[in-house]
Design brief:
The chain has one domain: Alpha-Beta Barrel (TIM Barrel). The protein contains 17 helices and eight strands. An eight-stranded parallel β-barrel has the order 1-2-3-4-5-6-7-8, surrounded by seven helices. α15 links the parallel β7 and β8. The longest helix has 24 residues. The chain is globular, with a radius of gyration of 21 Å. The two termini are about 35 Å apart. The protein binds flavin-adenine dinucleotide (FAD). Flavin-adenine dinucleotide binds next to β4, α13 and β7.
Length: about 400
């Protein structure tokens, strides 16, 4: 298969010269070694003080990584992506907002997002963080107490709280199934992940009988997740449903390692990057091998992993736009992968968050960390932007 991720003309066709310059400025700033560590500590604090940082954030990092503050604003970005055959995983990015009233409001918002997605031809999925619908402390208690999960526990209040969380997700998934929109449930910190996994499996058993509506997420930076994928597949076969699975490497590595040291337990994270890559690529192979009853979202910026998936499809003589294989990258990152996969005919999307600036700050801080100079993503982005700027200049000359 002849797909190249070096074609920057395809990658940045949607960006004007001015927008390209702006992106270059942002990534260059994030490339300063101390900028991201200091910025990610200061920003949440500055937002709380009421200092006028809102405008600066909106015109820089927010514009690069987020669709807009409202659904209406975000709709413009979705339409632009559609012009390039790029689909959207729409994400109402509320995080860490506790309180039953907030959880109910978020549920209503997710339902609105699904209803909107159903009117558009390029929004096959929405994405949900369970911490937008449930109290973090509750999830942690459930994670730590198997007796509570099985209903033998005597904390009636917590059991009722959990029932309300389940009810919210069931309501969302019922609308999604009715409107034929996928619901992808994000993976979060390992110390709350168990109840997320259990509930997602329960939902899949109900909603994924004919096609995948509900998707779980596995983080292959965890050394136990390839095994978990295989077990999930066994259960799906036994219970006769389609396993929906989004594959990611994982976004909370430093936090995971630090907590394991703090509480003196073995780190759930792989020993090195090569081990994460090995399991990620093995998971791609496993999902495509079992494509009949696994529907997979390959959510990665890693060029090798994306090319591997294309190569496996090709070797198995499966179409690049197989309905059970979807590729996705975060909005604002790796346009060279997204737009070149789209022009090769793959099902590919941008994961597009939206929401008020104050509420998307945790998401933005994760993107800033992911794009700092240590792991090299910024370097990759800058190299591509510079290449495209040079190409445009040469063309004019
Ligand atoms: C569509 C989409 C949805 C996403 N949803 C989620 C989600 O639900 N939950 C979530 O946690 N993340 C999610 N992410 C974020 C994702 O985890 C990061 O973008 C991803 O880890 C970056 O890796 P990469 O596959 O792009 O490849 P690369 O850039 O090749 O890999 C970087 C990743 O490798 C891992 N890594 C780096 N160094 C080491 C090391 N020394 N040892 C072990 N592992 C290492 C880390 O996970 C790091 O982020 C999502 C991303 C996308 C594109």
């Amino acid at each position: 298969m002849n797909i190249s991720f070096d074609n920057t003309e395809n990658a940045f066709a949607y960006k004007s010269d001015k927008q390209l310059k702006k992106a270059k400025f942002l990534f260059s700033t994030m490339d300063y070694p101390l900028f991201v560590p200091i910025g990610t500590r200061l920003t949440p604090f500055l937002m709380k003080t009421g200092l006028p940082v809102h405008g600066i954030i909106r015109n820089t990092i927010f514009q690069q990584f987020v669709g807009g503050e409202t659904l209406e604003e975000t709709a413009q970005v979705c339409k632009m992506l559609d012009e390039y055959n790029v689909q959207v995983i729409l994400d109402y990015a509320v995080e860490g907002k506790d309180g039953e009233e907030n959880f109910e409001q978020s549920t209503e918002q997710f339902i609105k997002v699904i209803e909107y997605a159903a009117t558009q031809k390029n929004i096959p999925f929405i994405s949900i963080k369970l911490t937008g619908l449930a109290r973090f402390g509750l999830l942690q208690t459930l994670n730590d107490a198997p007796r509570l999960r099985s209903g033998i526990h005597d904390h009636e209040e917590e059991m009722n709280e959990w029932e309300r969380v389940k009810d919210r997700l069931y309501r969302i998934c019922e609308v999604a199934a009715d409107k034929n929109i996928g619901v992808s449930i994000d993976a979060e910190e390992s110390w709350i992940q168990d109840p997320l996994d259990r509930l997602t499996m329960e939902l899949m058993e109900v909603f994924n009988k004919e096609k995948a509506i509900v998707y779980n997420t596995i983080q292959l930076y965890r050394h136990d997740r390839l095994h978990f994928l295989k077990i999930s597949h066994q259960i799906a076969q036994q219970q006769n449903f389609i396993l929906g699975m989004k594959l990611v490497r994982g976004a909370y590595m430093e936090k995971e390692r630090a907590r394991a040291v703090q509480y003196n337990y073995p780190s759930p994270i792989q020993i090195d990057k090569a081990s994460t890559d090995k399991d990620f690529n093995a998971a791609i192979g496993f999902c495509i091998e079992n494509i009949k009853n696994i529907s997979v979202v390959i959510a990665s910026h890693n060029e090798e992993s994306n090319l591997l998936a294309v190569d496996i499809l090709d070797k198995k003589a499966l179409p690049l736009n197989h309905p059970h294989v979807h590729f996705s990258q975060l909005f604002g990152m790796s346009d060279n992968v997204t737009f070149n996969l789209a022009s090769a005919g793959c099902n590919v999307s941008k994961y597009l968050p939206f929401g008020p600036i104050r509420e998307v700050i945790p998401y933005l801080m994760r993107r800033a960390k992911e794009n700092n100079s240590i792991n090299g993503q910024t370097g990759r982005e800058l190299k591509l932007i510079r290449k495209e700027m040079k190409r445009r200049k040469t063309k004019v000359a």
